[in-house]
Amino acid sequence: MLTPVILHGHLAEKYGSRFDLAAESVAEAIALLRASFATFADDVIGHEYHVWVGESNIGSNELANPVQGQEIHIIPVIKGAGGNGSVWQVVLGIVLVVVGVLTAEFGGGFLVDVGIGLIIGGVIGMIFAPSARSLTFAGLERGASKASYRFSGALNVSRQGNPVPVLYGRAVVGSQVIATAISSKDLV
User: In terms of CB atoms within 10 Å, which end of the chain has fewer, N or C?
Assistant: First the structure.
């Protein structure tokens, strides 16, 4: 019996999204993928994944359990982007807030506002990945937008890592349509 193995995220982009393998466990399916693709192990090491067998999210101690023909989904864990100088931006923001508070009598109160702005920007930089696309819309007309595996739905024109505006009040703006369907199950 062939077991369907569905890869998601960067693994699906590189190797394909669906494989029907003669595997009786998740461990066997991963071993077959490693044997089929020379760089598969390198792409898996250093990343965290959720592994679903049918409707169950399994742990690392259950990889050798029989799957009995159920679909295996290997899904990357969604994390913040981190890095890219954002930590130092937050530290600088904290320093500016402290200096601004200490020198508020002498006109240093504006440093508090600048520091708060740096802290917020740094936190946002740690959460979201920087966009690989330039700030022009020229790339959209040429089909430069990549498929997103983070959300599923009938229409999805936003790729991973792009900012999504949050509006308060009334505004007339363009949009990035995102359809979300996220489900999380724990057996513990």
Answer: C
pLDDT tens for each residue of 37-75:
988 888 887 778 888 898 888 888 888 888 988 999 998
Flag whether 93 is in a domain: yes
d(CA 140, CA 138): 6
Query: Which residues is 66 bridged to in the sheet?
Result: 25
Task: For residue range 7-34, list pLDDT tens digits in order.
Answer: 998 889 999 999 999 999 988 998 899 8
DSSP-derived 3-state class of residue 52:
strand
Q: Return the closest-CA partner of residue 33 out of 4, 66, 62.
A: 4
Amino acid making up residue 61: N
Identify whether 53 is part of a domain: yes
Strands (E), the chain: 3-7, 18-21, 49-53, 56-58, 72-76
User: Is 92 in the same domain as 72?
Assistant: no
pTM higher than 0.85: no
